[in-house]
Amino acid sequence: MPQTPLFLHPLGLFISVVQLLQLIVYYYVKKSSLEGNPSQ
After folding, report:
1. Using CA atoms, how far apart are residues 29 and 15, in angstroms rounded to an integer?
2. What DSSP string runs through 21-38?
């Protein structure tokens, strides 16, 4: 019997969404720190 792919499990889907959100937040913070507040 083949195993169910990880993304079909609720926990696997939750982990994938959390990792994606962390990547988006990291990119947003890095981008804003590079572009924002150059005078300070």
Report:
1. 21
2. HHHHHHHHHHHHHHHS-S
Sequence-ordered list of residues with C-beta below 8 angstroms from that of 37, at least 6 positions apart, any chain? none
Cα–Cα distance, 30 to 2 (Å, whole number): 41
The encoded tokens of residue 19 equal 């990792």
Does the pLDDT value for residue 15 go beyond 70? yes
Q: Higher-confidence residue: 9 or 38?
A: 9
Asked whether the predicted pLDDT for residue 32 surpasses 80, the reply is: yes
The answer to whether 7 and 16 are in contact (CB under 8 A) is yes
